[in-house]
Design brief:
α1 crosses α8, α11 runs antiparallel to α15 and α12 crosses α13. By secondary structure, the protein is an all-alpha fold. It has one domain: Growth Hormone, Chain: A, CATH 1.20.1250. The mean pLDDT is 83. The protein is globular. It has 17 helices and no strands. It is a multi-pass membrane protein. Keywords: Cell membrane, Membrane, Transmembrane, Transmembrane helix. Its main location: membrane. This is MFS transporter.
Length: 385
Amino acid sequence: MDPPVWLMALAAFSIGCGMRMLDPLLPMLAREFGVGLGAVAPLIGGFALAYGIGQLVMGPLGDRFGKMRIVAISMGCFAATQLAASQAGDLGMLLTVRVLAGLACAAVMPLFMAHIGDSVPYDQRQAMIGKLLTGMVASQLLAAPLSGIIAETAGWRTAFLGLGLMAAGMTAFFIVRLGPGLWQAPAGGGRTMGLSGFLRILERKAGRRLLLAAGLDGFLLFGGAFPFLASLLIQRFGLGAAEAGLVVASFALGSFAYTQKAGWLAARLGERRMVLWGGAGLALALSVFALAPAWWMVAVAQCSVGLLFFMLHGVLQARATEALPEARGTAVAAFAMALFLGQSLGSVVFGSVIVAAGYTVAFLLAGAGVLAMAVWIRAGLMRPA
C-alpha cells in the first residue's frame, strides 16, 4: 500500500486548517466569552499539548498496525471533533473539544513522514517531504483568511462546521482511494518496540539533541511567535480578522517556494547552512514584527518567513526520519511530541509575556531565541552521536 504524495498532501491540508484556523479568531472568541486574550490562548496550547501527548500512542500504533490505517482512523476522529466544536456552548467545552481534536489528528503528519522515510532514500527525502508539505502550506495560506472571513460574516461556529465537513469528505476520499489494502496487516507482521522506542531515542545523544531542538522550535515559533501575529495586527494596527488572516497567510508564499525547491536547497546549501541562514532570517523577521511602525512592513516580512522557517525546520524533519530507522513511526512521533509540547508551553508563556510587557518584548525575545537555537543546532545537532 503506497498512497501517492498528492493524496497525503490533501489529508495534510485538512489537518493544517485545524491547526491554524484560530489565529485570527482569538480576539473574537475572547469578546464572545467575556475573557482576556490570555484566557483563550489555551485553545491553541491545549490542542498542541494533546497533539504532542498523542504521539506516545500514535507512533507505536502506526508501526504495529500499519501507518495508513491509523492515519485514516485519526482523520475520521478529527472530522468529528470539528463538528462538535461548532456546537460548543462555552469556553470550557470548546477547550475540551480542541484537546480532543489535537489527540485525534496526532497520527497524520508524523506517520506520513515516517512512510516517506520507509520508502524514499535520505538524499531525496527533503524533496519528497517538501511535496507532502504542499498541503500543509496550502492550509497556512487559506485557513486563517477563510476562517476570518467566515467568522466575520457567519460566526466562528460556521468556521468549525465547514472544516468538519471538509475533513469528513477528505477522510472518505482517502479511504476509498486506498481501497481494501488499507485494512491489511503491515509487512513484517507489524513488529514494534512500543514505548521502549522512545527510550531508545533518548538513550542516543543525537536523539536527545534532536528532541530538544524540536521542543525549542515549537516553544519559540509555533507557540511563541506565530499564533500571536494576527492579534498584533488587530490590536496594534486596527486590522479586521479577515485582513489579519490574509497577512498571516502570506507565510505560505515563502513556504510554497520551499516545497518546490527543497531538494535544490538541500543539495546547494547543505543542512548546516540551511539551518543557520533560516534561523538568522527568522530572527530578523521577528524583529520587524516587534518594531515595525506600519502593518505593511509586517506583511512584507511575513512573506519570507515560510521559506526561512522550513529551511530550518525541514532539516530537523529529515533528521527525525533517521532517528530510529527500525521504528520510524515512533521516531517521527517523538519528534512531533517534542515540537508540540514546546508549542503548548510557548503559547502560555508568550501569551503571558504579551499581557505583562507587550508584543514588542515578546517578539524580540522570540527572535533572539531563534538565532541562538539555530547557532546551537548547527554546532551541536549536526555532529555525530
